[in-house]
């Protein structure tokens, strides 16, 4: 009984770590997008949309561990920093509410953490005869044959292929697999 409990605790710890990394990735993707949108493109609406996506992810994040609270705090601080050029007065009050003693205007614009942006897997859309039928997760460094094999082994794809012979499989690396029957 003890080993089952330990195994369950390890699985929960692994899941919590995975969710924390996903929230950090979302936060730093929003930072990278807002940095480009505000700094180079002068396009505020897409920067706001990126922050909205981040705040939706924060709302779904339910890890109450000390590490989880630290990840949530980082995401909230980044959200306030990203919105500061657009709504400075409200963001200053939020900055103070997040527990900072310094003025928001004195803070430097953060740089995205490249290690947080790194992904282990990538989501690839699978089409059968040009119609979207499934999605698969494959390792980022998977070669074309591995992506092709994973797509052809997917049960939803097999349902649409049925007994028809596969004439061609087109793989667009990191994005798409199209199976032509």
Keywords:
2 domains; alpha+beta; Isoleucyl-tRNA Synthetase, Domain 1; Ubiquitin-like (UB roll); single chain; 59% helix
Give the SSE map:
Elements: H1 2-41, H2 44-60, H3 66-83, H4 88-97, H5 114-117, E1 121-128, E2 131-139, H6 144-153, H7 155-161, E3 168-172, E4 176-180
Parallel strand pairs: 1-4
Antiparallel strand pairs: 1-2, 3-4
Helix pairs in contact: 1-2, 1-3, 2-3, 3-4
- CATH domain topology of the largest domain: Isoleucyl-tRNA Synthetase, Domain 1
Question: Sheet with the most strands?
Answer: 4 strands, mixed
Tally of distinct domains:
2
Name of the CATH architecture of the largest domain: Orthogonal Bundle
**Cross-sheet strand order for the largest sheet:** 2-1-4-3
| Uncertain ranges | none
| SS class | alpha+beta
For the termini, the CA-CA separation is 51 Å
The strand count comes to 4
Describe the structure.
The chain is α+β, with helices and mostly antiparallel strands and 181 residues long. It has two domains: 2-117, Isoleucyl-tRNA Synthetase, Domain 1; 121-180, Ubiquitin-like (UB roll), CATH 3.10.20. It has helices at residues 2-41, 44-60, 66-83, 88-97, 114-117, 144-153, 155-161, and strands at 121-128, 131-139, 168-172, 176-180. The chain has a four-stranded mixed β-sheet, with helices on one face. The protein is elongated and about 65 Å long. 16% of the residues are buried.
């Amino acid at each position: 009984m003890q080993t089952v409990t330990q195994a369950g605790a390890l699985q929960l710890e692994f899941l919590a770590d995975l969710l924390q990394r996903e929230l950090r990735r979302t936060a730093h993707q929003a930072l990278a997008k807002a940095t480009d949108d505000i700094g180079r493109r002068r396009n505020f609406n897409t920067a706001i949309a990126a922050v909205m996506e981040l705040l939706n992810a924060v709302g779904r994040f339910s890890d109450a561990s000390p590490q989880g609270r630290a990840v949530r705090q980082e995401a909230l601080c980044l959200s306030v920093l990203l919105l500061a050029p657009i709504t400075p007065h409200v963001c200053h009050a939020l900055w103070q509410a997040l527990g900072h003693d310094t003025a928001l205007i004195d803070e430097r614009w953060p740089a995205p953490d490249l290690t947080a942006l790194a992904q282990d897997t990538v989501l690839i859309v699978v089409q059968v005869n040009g119609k979207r039928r499934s999605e698969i997760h494959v390792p980022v460094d998977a070669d074309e044959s591995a992506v092709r094999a994973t797509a052809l082994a997917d049960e939803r794809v097999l349902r649409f292929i049925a007994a028809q012979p596969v004439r061609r499989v087109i793989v667009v690396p990191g994005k798409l697999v199209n199976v032509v029957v």
